[in-house]
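Can't attach files on this board, so I'm pasting raw text. These are the components:
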Amino acid sequence: MNKVRRIELTFEFLRVILGIIIAFAFILVLIALVADNPVDAIINFSIGPFQTSRRFGQIMGKFIPYLLSGCGMCFIYASGRFSLVGEGIVNFAPIIACIIIFLSGGWMAGIPLWINLLIIIVICAVTGGFIGLIPALGREKLGANEMVISIMMNFILLFLSQYILKAFLADRSVSFLASWIYPKNARFPALIADSNFHAGFYISMIGLVIACFIFYRSRIGRKIRIAGSNPNFARYSGMNIGLVMLAGQVIGGMFSGVAGAVDAFGLYERYQYNMLTNIGMDGLIVAVLARKQPVFVPFGAFLLAYIRTASVVLNLSTSIPFEFVNMMQAVLILFVAADAFLSKSKNKMIFKESRKKVSEQSKGA
Amino acid sequence: MTIEWITSFLFSVLRISTPIMFVAICAVISEQTGLLNMAAESMMLASALTGVIVSALTQNLFVGILAGMVVSVLVSLLLCFAAFVMKVDLYLMSIALNTAMSGATVFVMYIMTGVKSNTAAAFNSLQMPAIHLPIIKDIPVIGKILSGLNGFTYIAWITAFLVWFLIYRTKLGLRMRVVGQNPSAAESVGINPRKIYTIAFSIAAAIASMGGMYLSMGYQNFFIRDISAGKGFIGMSASTIGNANPFITAVMSIVFGLSEAVTNNLKIYISDSQLLSALPYIITVVLIFLLSTWRIVQKKNKIRRTQHEVMAQTAK
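---
Top answer:
Structure tokens for the assembled complex are below.
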């Protein structure tokens, strides 16, 4: 690895770390200003999530879907398209799985747990892929803005899944709108008893490996990266850009579908989403924190899951509303995704290094 | 269906379409410069809360509205700083700002009132009064529909005209359109695209802020969390459908208001109202698809026509 590349990587890393530190400082100052007992509140916020296994389970419960939707968003984000349809897929894909579980005559009842879960995951992934295809087709074939379409589709998918839930799957014996209780062989078993840490963790790890493989080692992954970072170059070197972008968005949709499956069948015993889960949007934030690299997605996902859990913990102990961490996310993104942040000192370093190299070369000659 | 029912229905359509119209016009301005204004939602939220708080504290409506506008412009300046100075992706920052503002408004509301759902109990905010137009109100049917609407509604209509004037009849508007069509070309003749973007976003923010304040100070006199409820995105798609033309966009936002009013009216009779709630969004997606197909067909026809002409000329 040459020196310039090394400097670039160092600064990339530094930027993420600095961004995280600044965002944390910002939020801690905010807590200290508002809370009645600042020291307690800050301790609660920073180490509270690790104090009990239950809270740690909460972190992991959030981490599992974030990991998958983050990987999916890496593909969409890397292909340079802003399809946010993952949000709606997380709501809608489990509904299709529910229809097959409850309304297909009970053929799934006798199947062993893991095979059944695999079937559910495949169903959700296929659903996600197909839904991801709609805004992608609109963009590549018709030139319709994929962002507008995908945001509208999120609302459509939300209302559609609510409709299907109410009309065909609703359990009338409970007071809230929810499906029947899932059969035993359609739930991810808990890894730590009485916590949110469930066996979907394995699925997300496998998903991460697959994402890394596709992204770095496969032909389509390389094409997506090239087409995303420089469409003109890709076009002139003979790539079918439309097809590549389509593939990127479909893969993203499939990962979102799996994220929905893992969340709906892991955390809850019935299908009970009644609004958008925000997992899709959080996937985007995870992808940004990971700098579009699936390898780093676990760190981003864990950080976000930790922040979210910490805010809930803080809310329980001090009644500061947990929504305030949303501000922290904006600060995080402002610094982590900022290309100009630290770029001056980076360029200075690179100049210095290059000059040294040139002078050494001229001495040698 | 009596005439009275129809007039009151149309009246409610105009009432419902007001915030959408503000946001749609706000989206028109940024779309003319070639960028989508995804952050309209956050601008609405910020200004809606500020308007309520300031107008309640000062007991002056116009100070409240002004404060809401200023806060909204500040939000847009933050967005522009992030996007054009710090070089964060604009849409990414807009999404981050939307979630941030939905959190920040809850946070500020909690600090000011101790409640995190609405400000109804703590603040006695002022409300924009309904305005009765002098001559029109005496015309039998039309008067019932067009007169007596909230002041913001009339401001929205006037804004549509002003924005049309700004875009098509002023130097700034010309520059905005140039930047929107080709930023590099604009830069080569000495127009700084980032400056134009920032100006456009500030104007857009001021307009979006009135949409937000209509929700919290026109419709009712308190702020509820996430009061904008996706209206920012509907406005954005109205402008996309209207191809960033202020008048078509304004008409489109009335169409959206109509579909929402129909939904509200039918909800009483239909128990499974979820599909009905999805209706405006389905209409949007279908319309956008149809319009883009139409535009592509037109483009192809034009190319074919030009080819024919060139062929005919060379044949001569």
